[in-house]
Design a protein that fits this description.
The chain has helices at about 15-25, 55-70, 95-110, 130-140, and strands spanning about 5-10, 30-40, 45-55, 70-80, 85-95, 115, 120-130, 145-150, 155. By secondary structure, the chain is an alpha+beta fold. Strands 5, 6, 7, 8 and 9 form a five-stranded antiparallel β-sheet that branches.
Length: about 170
């Protein structure tokens, strides 16, 4: 059965690291669903969070191949119990007061921020799990989505489990 697996990895902060990692996925015919990269609190080390779709054997092969790359410091899978978030900006057509009022009501339920409003559209910021964001997008499709920008998944292990930070 194919699942989404979240892989957290520490890598050397060097030019070409992302290219080498993406190339490994392409050579093995694995697809990167989402990828985020950022600095850590250790100079010269970055953290990548990659979501890959596949069964357990795909995950095992991906982890083995990532560990072989010279730039890789550490690779761990973040389980479903990890803290998993994504940020999404959505520009929605909101031409009348009724639409704006309905979106305002949704914002209370989904804990959304309005980051830009004009006479013809509203841009909303939603932070949460990918499922939460997907359900919100489905809910507002009828208003007319003008643009969406999603960051991709970022994740961290809960508590002291699976320490991956530097």
């Amino acid at each position: 059965m194919e699942n989404k697996h979240i892989i957290s990895m520490l890598v050397e902060d060097q030019p070409g690291v992302l290219t080498r990692i993406a190339g490994m996925f392409a050579r093995r015919n694995y697809n990167i669903d989402t990828i985020t990269v950022g600095k850590t609190n250790t100079k010269g080390i970055s953290k990548m969070v990659i979501t890959v779709i596949g069964d357990d054997s795909v995950l095992e092969q991906v982890e083995k191949q990532l560990n072989k790359l010279i730039d890789t410091v550490k690779v761990v899978e973040i389980g479903k119990d990890g803290v998993i978030r994504e940020l999404c900006l959505i520009k929605i057509a909101a031409k009348d007061k009724k639409s704006k009022d309905e979106l305002l009501n949704y914002s209370k339920i989904y804990k959304i921020k309005f980051v830009d409003v004009d006479t013809k559209s509203m841009t909303l910021e939603i932070i949460g799990t990918p499922d939460k964001i997907d359900s919100f997008i489905e809910l507002v499709k009828g208003y007319g989505i003008q643009d969406i920008s999603r960051t991709g998944v970022t994740a961290i292990a809960r508590g002291s489990n699976g320490k991956n930070n530097s």
